[in-house]
Amino acid sequence: MDYNYEWIIANKNASYSSSSASFANLRTYHGIFVKNINENYDRMVMLSKFFEEFEFDSDRINLDSNYYPGTVFPDGRKYLSDLNDDPYPQFVYSSQNFKIKKSIIMHPLKDVLIIKYEMDPEPEIARFYPLLSFRNSNDIIRKGDRIFVWQKNGKFVHFSSVQNNLWIGADGNFITDNLWYYNFQYPVEIERGSHYEEDLYLPGHFELRYPGKNIEITVHSDASYAGESFDDTLKEYIKSRYKIRSNRINIKNMYEKANIFLLKNNIIAGYYWFGPWGRDTFISLPGLALIPGRYELARDILFTYMRQMKNGIIPKTMAGEYDAADVSLWFIYAVYKYYEYTKDVNTIRHFMPAIKEIIDGYIRGNDYYFMENNLIKLKMGKLTWMDAEYNNIIFTPRSGMPVEINALWYNALKTYEFLCNEVSIGYDDSYKNIYKYIEKNFENLYMHDGKIYDVLPDDFKLRPNFIFAFSLPFPVLNNFNKYKNQVDKYLITPYGLRTLSPEDPDYIPVYTGDRLHRDRAYHNGIIWPWLAGPYITAAVRSGNSASDLLDYFSSLYNMRKIPELFDDDGTPKGCILQAWSYGELIRSYFEDLGGN
User: Fold this and answer.
1) What are phi and psi of 28, to 5 degrees?
2) Could you report the per-residue pLDDT of 455-509, keeping only the tens digit for each?
3) Per CATH, which fold does 6-239 belong to?
4) DSSP for residue 483
5) Kind plus residue range of the DSSP H or E element containing 8
6) Where do the domains of the chain lie?
7) According to the model, what pLDDT value does residue 487 have?
8) pTM reported for the whole predicted model
9) How many angstroms separate the CA atoms of 579 and 261, rounded?
């Protein structure tokens, strides 16, 4: 049993519950009840832990485990005999004297969590201990940092602090403790060089005597909570899960897990620390929403971002960040894919003015980019998907004319022409002159003297970004095999593509250490699984075997939990689940690998 396996369940508000298999929290992001508190997708760990004691024939059993300095205490993980977290977390604890099944479910639309215990035999006493923190998910607290107020009201106890509210409901008595537990340690945060030790507050505990063989505990912060049972909530949760049609169980399982990213009208980029990001959303949209036929969701997502457009720029995040040179171009890509799958001409008409405004904005220029000699030139180094920065150090500076930005620029101009024809509106010939110039000169500009330029005029580090010139719906180049050998020799791995050739002196194979070291490695060699998607598309278009590609990436396609990153040895890193990792693997499976 891997006691550090991380499980998670989330709802369409981006609230979640997550911890390790042993329920020893490994990160500041872990918590039994973690609530999304605003439209910027800041999350608060309300209920950090909720541990249990049971008495069977006066034998006291504690199921909890925690990391403390130099030790694990208590060691309740020794009772854990089984764990299944699909489609929701279920844990089995057993010994010769008892068996307990613990299940956790979350309402898909309300911030309501229900924990169910099924016990054999009936315990004499069951005690439940809520440890509170009421803090941001990337922070910690110490004793006295919060003042908690609580009040018993019928079955529920209401807890409040820092203008936040939480209710926990259980049968039995609530006994006041008023204690702080000290020095919980989070091993992943130690590795990441972050704050890793905190104290948690125990206001009191629930005590149930001879509770029967089944107990349900309800945790919520939702004023609309109407007393749903575990079984009722489970039905709503299962009903909310989108399915995908496939003859392969691994693809069905992959999409089942990918449901975690789909919000009411957006796509969350990854767990634990991301909210929705425009770039990630538009790249993920075909695999996560269009291929499964969730057309209404896809349309709502596109309108959500279009309504936030300012001066021809689609936002990078829902927090109102606009400093990106590619997000608006990826928006046009996503609109095209929406039309490709739906043929919804009426909706496309609503997007056409926005697409034209975006294109005119690139031509006109702004604080971030402008058009020079028909190509898009960036004024600063942190405007592409390779945007890691720490303490004003930009680790992949790409000011100039990045190759994928201009492949996307060409794709945007061609997409607009295509959609103009579909909806019967005029297309400005000046746009055609731009893309004709790019068609004629792109290869000579970016591939000459035996080098592939990542950024013009003088950055020829071998990175995977040039692949988009071959993989977008309107590719500016079509001879990928001419350059594929360099990708296969230096960049490709069974887990995705390296972000820099190992031959480069700046190559870093491991994503570890504090923020400085992790951000330095982020796009300088670390493997990104989402890049397998454009590689597969480009390779298949150039006549390479779909079955061989599927075999090569079988490690990814057989995963349920696909992370943000991998070290060079295949160790998962970064977010434990990343939307575009799933989205691009699903898209390329169905569009390029003959998936069914």
Assistant:
1) -65, -20
2) 999 999 999 999 999 999 999 999 999 999 999 999 999 999 999 999 999 999 9
3) Beta-galactosidase; Chain A, domain 5 (2.70.98)
4) H
5) strand 6-10
6) 6-239, 242-593
7) 98
8) 0.96
9) 6
Q: Give the confidence band of 119 by pLDDT, cuts at 50, 70, 90.
A: very high
Give CA torsion, residues 164, 165, 166, 169, to 10 deg: 170
Q: Which run of H or of E encompasses 562? A: none
Are the CB atoms for 427 and 413 separated by under 8 Å? no
CA distance 225 to 217: 14
Pairwise CA distance, residues 336 & 338, whole Å? 5
> Residue 163 to residues 17, 38, 369, 481, 587: CA-CA distances in angstroms?
21, 13, 42, 59, 43
How far is residue 111 from each of residues 12, 114, 163, 189, measured CA to CA in Å? 9, 10, 17, 27
The two domains 6-239 and 242-593 share their CATH topology (first three levels equal): no
Rg of the chain on CA atoms, in Å = 26
What is the rounded distance in angstroms from the CA atom of residue 324 to the CA atom of residue 238?
37
- Pairing between β-strand 112-120 and β-strand 214-220 as defined by DSSP bridges: antiparallel
Question: Any idea what DSSP says for residue 247?
Answer: S
**Secondary-structure class of domain 242-593 per CATH:** mainly alpha
Whether 526 contacts 567, CB under 8 Å: yes
Containing 204, the helix (H) or strand (E) segment is strand 197-209
Instruction: Supply the pLDDT for residue 163.
Output: 87
Q: Return d(Cα 390, Cα 592) in angstroms, integer.
A: 38
C-alpha 504/C-alpha 451 separation (Å) is: 14
Tally of residues, the chain: 596
Q: What are the helix (H) ranges across 466-576?
A: 468-471, 481-490, 515-521, 532-541, 546-552, 554-557
The whole-angstrom separation of Cα 590 and Cα 215 is: 44
User: Is residue 223 very low, low, confident or very high in pLDDT (cuts 50, 70, 90)?
Assistant: confident
pLDDT at res. 129: 98
Sheet containing strand 527-528, strands side by side: 492-493, 496-498, 527-528, 565-566, 572-573
Considering all CA atoms of the chain, what is the largest pairwise distance in Å, rounded to the nearest integer? Answer: 85
The encoded tokens of residue 325 equal 């040179």
**Angle value at C-alpha 26, between 25 and 31, nearest 5 degrees:** 40
Q: If you average pLDDT over every residue of the chain, what do you get? A: 96
Query: Is residue 174 within 8 Å of 82, Cβ to Cβ?
Result: no
Q: How confident is the model at residue 200 (pLDDT cuts 50, 70, 90)?
A: very high
Q: Which two tokens stand for residue 19?
A: 């911890």
CA quadruple 21, 189, 559, 336: dihedral sign:
positive
